[in-house]
Amino acid sequence: MSVIESTTGLAGRDRYTISEVAALTGLSAHTLRWYERIGLMPHVDRSHTGQRRFTERDLAWLAFVGKLRLTGMPVADMVRYAELVREGDHTHAERRALLEATRRDVLDRIAELRSALAVLDVKIDHYGTTCGGPSS
């Protein structure tokens, strides 16, 4: 079961319109088209009338891209990763290197946020003491 299936209750569906995908992912139809245009989305099938028809695999990919966005990975790196996926298994080492670099960036950001949190905690404790309120 995919992430989308487990969170939406749409298990068993095999095709989704762009408006359904927009509703499921929170991405606008414009963003979905842009992802496809820049190469971040793999080829999306079309119906006989030309409407995009997204698959469960497309939804799983979009969930992964959403996680990459949360990491702060630059769009250019996400597109490069997508290109590497399309190129095949011989690109595993380069894909891993991209993900490892992003992981290091995330760990650096976590450390920065922990440092900022510690400063906030000190200030909150200070105000709790000087104002007579409870400290954290």
Class based on secondary structure composition and strand pairing: mainly alpha
Mean pLDDT score, rounded? 89
Task: Return Rg in Å.
Answer: 21 Å
Spatial order of the strands forming the largest sheet: 1-2
Shape: elongated
Terminus-to-terminus distance = 42 Å
Topology:
Blueprint: H1 3-8, H2 18-25, H3 29-38, E1 45-46, E2 52-53, H4 56-71, H5 75-87, H6 92-130
Antiparallel strand pairs: 1-2
Helix pairs in contact: 5-6
Verbal overview:
This protein has about 140 residues and is mainly alpha-helical. Helices cover about 70% and strands about 5% of the residues. The chain has helices spanning about 5-10, 20-25, 30-40, 55-70, 75-85, 90-130, and strands at about 45, 50-55. It has a two-stranded antiparallel ribbon. Helix 5 runs antiparallel to helix 6 (about 90-130). The longest helix is centred in the last third of the chain and has 39 residues, at about 90-130. Mean pLDDT is about 90; it is low at about 1-10.
Could you give a quick summary of the protein structure above?
This protein is mainly α.
What features would you highlight for this structure?
136 residues; mainly alpha; two-stranded antiparallel sheet; disordered N terminus
